[in-house]
Amino acid sequence: MTKLVSIITPVHNSEKFLSQCMDSVLAQTYSNWEHILIDDCSFDGSEALIRKFQEKDPRIKYHRLQKNSGAGMARNKGIEFAKGKYIAFLDSDDVWYPEKLEKQLHFMELNNYHFTFTSYDTVNEDGNKLSKIIKAKKKVTYKSALYKNPIGCLTVMYDVDFFGKQYMSSIRKRQDYALWLKLLKKTNGYGLNECLASYRVGIESISANKLDLLKYEWKIYRDEENLPFLKSTFYLISAIVLKMKSYF
Residues 193, 97, 243, CA angle at the centre, nearest 5°? Predict the structure, then answer.
C-alpha cells in the first residue's frame, strides 16, 4: 500500500506562476498525494485558478486564511489539515521534476530515513535555467546546520509517524530553517544528491535586504534555539562568511 504524501503550498497573489507549480504536482509519477494550498488572503486570480484545478482533481485542497499571516503560518495551517504519513513543501512559484516524490520516497523507505531533502536548480522569472545548482549534502546534523541553512524548503519531506506533526515558527522569515533545526534535534537529515526541483529566483529574492534576513537568523539562534550570546554571535558570523563564499 502506497503512503499518502501531503504537499503544502502557501499562496499569496501567486497567479503568475501557480499553474506551473500545480502542473508539476499533477505530473508526478507517484500519485498518492494531496496538494493543500493555503491562500494567505490573495486579491488576484489565485483562488479562481485553484478552483479550476480542483474541479478536475479531488486531490487538490483549498483553504483561505481569515487574515494575512505570512508563509510560515500558511504552511502551519496546511500541516494542520494534512492527512499524509509524509509532509512535503512546495512554494507557489517553484516546481518539481516529475519523479521527485517517487525517488525521494524510495530513498527514505530504502534507508529508513525520516527527514530528507534533495538537490535543486534555479530558474529566473521567465523559467530559464540559471547556472547555479544547489547540491544536497549527504548528511546534515543539528550542529552543522547551525553554521548555515543547507536545506531547500521546496525539497524537504518529513515522516509524520516518526516526528508527529511539526510546525513552523511564528517568526516572519527563516521559519523553515527554524523547523529544520527542530527536526535535526531528533534525527539527522539526509540528502538525495539528485536535482529534482527548480527554485525560482525573482527580482525580490536578488535584491532582498540581507541585513533583514540576518536579523531573523539572529532571532533563531537567540529566541528559538536559546543559544548564549557569544555562541549566537559565532554562528551568525559563520553564516555571513559562508554566504559571502557562495557568491564567489
Answer: 50
